[in-house]
Amino acid sequence: MIRFKLKPLNVDNRKRFRSFLSSNEIRARFIDYFVKENDHKYIKSSPVVPYNDPTIAFVNAGMCQFKSVLLGQRTLAANCVANSQKCIRVGGKHNDLDIVGSDGYHHTFFEMLGNWSFGHYGKAEACHLAWNLLTLPPFNIPPEQLYCTVFNGDRTLDVEADNETLQIWKHIGVNDDHIVMNGANDNFWEMGETGPCGPCTEIHIDYPPSGGKNLIELWNIVFIQYSREKNTMRKLPNYFIDTGMGLERLTMVLQDKTSTYDTDLFSSIFNIIFNACRISKYTGLYDGTSLDTYYRVLADHGRMITVALSDNMLPSQNHKLRRLIRKSFILAETNFKIQPGYTLMCDIANEVSNSLGNVYPELIKNNEKVKHLIKHEYAIFNKLRMSVSKDWKMIVEECPMLKSFNPYEECTGFVPACNYLIKHKNMSNIPAFTLYDAFGLEKKTIGRLAEVMGKPVSWNELDEKLKQLQTKTIKHTERKSNNYMTGNIPKTDDSFKYEVIRNNNESYLSPVVIAKLLAIFDINGNIVTEPDIKQQGDMVSLVLDKTSFYCKAGGQQNDIGIVTTNNGIVFDVIGVDKIEENGVVLHHIKSRNWPILLSEKELHVQVDSNNRLGLMRAHSSVHILNSVLNSYLVVTTQLSSCVKKDFMSFTFALFGQTFSPKDALVVEEKVKSVIQSAVSVKRTTVTSNDLNQINVTLLPGEVYPDEVHLIDMYSNVDDAYISREACCGTHVQNTLDVIDFCIVQYKCNINECTIMAVTGPLCTNARVFGQQLLGKSNFVEDLANSTNLNNISPTKVRLLMDNMNQLKSELKNISQNYIPLKVQIQINKKIFAIERKIQKLTKEKKIQILGDAVKILCKDNYAVGYVDCDVAYLNDNCYDFENVIHICGEIPCLFLAYNKEHIHVYLRIPKEHPEDVDWLNNFWNKFDIKPIKFKNKIQFKATEFKVKQVDKYMALKLIDNVIRDVKKYYFSNVKGFDD
């Protein structure tokens, strides 16, 4: 049994508990009491993002990380533990979100102090431990203020009253009138409809003392002694103790405060808010409308947001978190007049990190990341506000009852959903499935909309359609797996896939595995029993009792290799698949000789070691790249990856950060440096719960199995992990074996970036081809540099453009040849410079040719005529007369040209000369166009246009007609014109 070694702090027993303990001291005292004085093992808090429980979005109780132990799925090395667990409650059964701020003790984030016994001690010890901690120094809570509740039995559960606990409390000294007997609703704990459960006993405090009228729950002690099954309640051979006490409430009591918000857990945050807004200090009013309510809400949400973000929860993956962040922005700007709102939230995040970072170091470690995510969320939020504000205004005008909603707190589809409802306002019911499926609204939001609009909700339709979708998914899954009738075949033992031998020359060998042949399937999924090649075809799949082949998983492609009979007949395995439902591995072969396998009982399985090594190199480089990116960027996360033989693709989130090709090259050098550091790579196996206790890179929102493989890259030089990641893939044993790393493609937008790279010998091939292409670009560059205004020609321009287009084509064609990103950048710079030079020279040549042609038409008093020049430089069908008009001096001008089925016209007349309206009307009519307004220049007014005329003969005839007409009827009237 547990040994009690109560060693209270050395304080005066007469000193009241309310005067000196900070929240940090209270938490530390709880942990020390159980760990140092009563032989419990300290287990640090798990992140608020559950690793192995898809049924909850947040860790909402201290028992969450021990759930698999309570379910009997695993055991702990320690039989009694204690911790302080970060908890978030914003939904589900324990949803305190709507109450936050309206009372003095509900929170979205809180800390649960707890101790557990896994079959080590029983009820008496648990009750004594709790009672002694509360009533002895330094807490010194007067026993007469404490009340205990006990389970009074339940006939429907077929469970008797917990008389044992009742007697324990009496033995401890609790008076009968301080013991309350309750039914199952209050004092029976269940994890779910089935599974472990049991009675609980609670310690309440009469606070402030009122003769038992102000009871507040402090500590809940659960005795998990039953297993609830379908029709019975089975008593467990050993039962567990699971306790929980909220730090916030305990601190309120020990600091003699009337509210948890009056404790030092919140006072420093209130100071941060006041220093930012300078409106009024927090006074603790509870009238529901004062600024104090918003103080409480903002402080509470700020703590929850900071903790969630520091635990790698992403707003893009959790709408509740995003909604709280947006709500906080609005509170900061609307109620506290802080612009922009994210600045106050970042200040609060700093304070939360400072106050809780000594207990939860990840808050300090990830502080910059948290603030960056807050700023990024504000940018998204602000963009949303700007885009929907006009639509929302129209919606509220159309349907004023929707004013009670804040569209900026809701999901992105909320405003479009409201638009949809207004457009279909004659609907008798609110279409729940449409709002849920098409617009992404939560059920709670749909219910609120229905209530406001006074319409019933078609919940039945939603439930039925969701069931249909679920059924379709199940059927699809079943069809895929049941295509192979493997129901009676045992799971394939594929643990051999991780067994490789590293030779001294840094090559790898996958050992031969001798396996039993269990079945052969044809392409239709039927077991083959007859050697009928005509009926079955030449493609079959083998099922073995064991294999060393890796099936596609975690982004890594499957192995290839061979299976060999005892007589030495070889069959190529061109692919493998695993049926997830039962773990059976299918080895696909294509051979007309497969019928001989029907007489074989065992086969020799051999993975293609060269192909496997290429996969291992690529996969290890993914981990190194991920690690480098996490240290290079303030915040990022892996979005996807693809691993092929000596090739990898990695997509990561940017959260508003820029990541240029120059950054990619810096990262490439860092990855290469890790490779050359000869860091050892090891695989270890842990339970998903062990992930809580180590620093490991995980995918946000990913649910991990009970058994997790870790890939550790540990540097003995730095005495630190280069990379530590959960992964089921295959890897080299030393980073040197990756040989090399070369980025060959880079794609980036505002949200994410994808890097593609090659490893091993492909790097050499890429660099060789890159140098060849660089040589071609140098040739084109030299050709461009030797081109000037005197020797440029259409032929030379075409040659340059053809070469550059070929370079561009080869740069894009990554499937044919890999090219180092560094070389791509160099070549693209050259192409850009060459194109700029060609454009400049071509433009200058066009002006030169056009100027020469115009100059011929200039006379003393006018310049009129057909512009005939080399159109080889006018492929863009643009005559830039404005750039050459200065050649003509200050005389009136009319230029006409014909090119590419268009007549080009430029007309300039003196500004002071009166316009001949009749002539101008005739001028426009000749071209069959409406009058075009003249643009005023300094001394002239001018117009320029082109009209389509396909027939060149007709075009030239019209041009001659216009030239004669202008000379005879218009320019003859211009002062100084001499016909």
UniProtKB/TrEMBL annotation:
Top-rank lineage group of the source organism: Eukaryota
One Gene Ontology MF term: tRNA binding
GO-annotated biological processes: alanyl-tRNA aminoacylation
Annotated EC: 6.1.1.7
UniProt enzyme class: ligase
Domain Alanyl-transfer RNA synthetases family profile intervals: 21-745
Family annotation (CDD domains): AlaRS_core (cd00673)
Protein name as annotated: alanine--tRNA ligase
